[in-house]
């Protein structure tokens, strides 16, 4: 099922997965007040690196971290001339920034970190909520939100990399991309990282002084305080450095960012610890010119200066005798304060609420389907309800007053050029080699029926309504208005709820009536009742249409289920099928409002002949239009006399011999041939009937509306296929309206013989 897609380029920045083993240390480095630091004895506070860290290279498990005193000693050994205050600051920052690795199963209560001193202004309990709410972070998969030239936000979660730093005011972390994984799941870099669009965007943000928002997941290992929520917005940061280092001898890119608005302490500073020294409190960073590239770089680690110019071949030449994992950040670099020409942000951290403004359609725009930040508690509230937003944490509510949108605002002009008595035009197209097309005039509909080669008895029938149908009392025009006036309980129902990233939501709103419908999304179920007269009208109309379309000898069982879908502007339904086994063979949909494009294509596994993941040959007869049809059909026919077991053995070699599976279909031409074979333009009042289970088995369809739209889809669901606990309390009432479209006077010449 669809979720809101990424709107911009999203390259990877950090792995957002988290280790599965729980080995959180409980002994946290506590830094006593600075006055007592010199006499500090901290023998017992070393943290044992959790074994989960072996996922990353160069981090042996069971490695005992040096104590505070050992860190002090190491710094003094590396640079005996260093000021003692600086040595202690460096050691404190180093010891205070160690990893606390939690597992996904670690509850916030079991999180050993101290509470933060404050509370995030914006937070979320799901990635979907976060990304659908915040304009500066709409990246559903990766840790960077960028369009390739502008970077808006970063998110980190899970384990940080060696030498990363997550402090109160300064951050250092590594650019993503370019990883490979060996057979043990250890991530390494086999070649130099190259500039990717995300890194280029950060470079540009450094040059052009554009702030970036940083978001932390609950399990960021370098975060020193407890993150109460799955995702918390830290705030606005200045990107200041993009520099080069090496891992396994291969170049990697790293970033430094510093917090804006440091007059207030950062909310995530841990309680019970001294605040970190503020930005700008240290001497200026050491700068040297590289003998190789002749560029100036700042000294990043106390162990000594290295070139950090991203183009230099001698970048990150670690001083002799030093292990890169033991490098200690230099406070003069880390805590420097970068002056910008401005201290403003491009957007508010808490986005403005969408408002009605002067537009009558404000309540159904793309903005209206996005989430809002709760003004009561700061959480990201997704747009779940048709009527508006409601915070499930504190009860705060918001809505944009709806206005009934007239049809003329959502339809193209052609609509009104039609003659009152004429048959409407078809805008649909199909691939002739796969689809045969048949046309008739029935009552007031131009009916285009599409037969799919090889799927005998199956068809897609498109009943194109004319003006007379649309204007009929209780017809499409009335329904479109009523659906806006009455809240029939449309909402976005949860698709999935994963521990790591919370619930995700579909793109559109839905409500179900009659028998429960478990495909695509489980929805709450309402009975057919007089409270929802419009649903009864739609069911009756679709039942009448199906009676016309389905051959009499097959019989048609009255629809007992209606799924109502509502689409705001820019919402859509991605490729899916409607399920096969326990549904009746006939599915009918009534379109209301803006036109939509409905496309059919063969499912990927049938087109390529193999399952997506394992690339095993599919156990279904190949159908015309699939890749390599002739050879596959012949091979299929040849094994039909064999037992199921022997068939399976024969088929196991097909992936190779017949070139099945997507990976075999390398050429662009082959990939492009996996495209839609039928494209219907569904306009207000049109009905589409899909008949035959094989359509759902072999084909999938998508619907992309051109604006504000409703769709009412009717099915016949066999009660025997529903778990008794899920059955409606009262059995589904029969259709009592008995709609009959033949009473509408058809234009002359219509074929009403059926
Ligand atoms: Zn250099
Ligand atoms: Zn709230």
From TrEMBL:
It comes from the Eukaryota. 2-oxoglutarate binds at residues 567, 576. Residues 110-259 form the YDG domain. It is found in: Nucleus. Keywords: Nucleus. GO terms for biological process: DNA alkylation repair. Its main location: nucleus. GO terms for molecular function: broad specificity oxidative DNA demethylase activity; cytosine C-5 DNA demethylase activity; ferrous iron binding. InterPro entries: AlkB-like, AlkB-like_sf, ALKBH2, SRA-YDG_sf, SRA_YDG. One of its GO terms (cellular component) is nucleus. This is YDG domain-containing protein. It comes from Aulographum hederae CBS 113979.
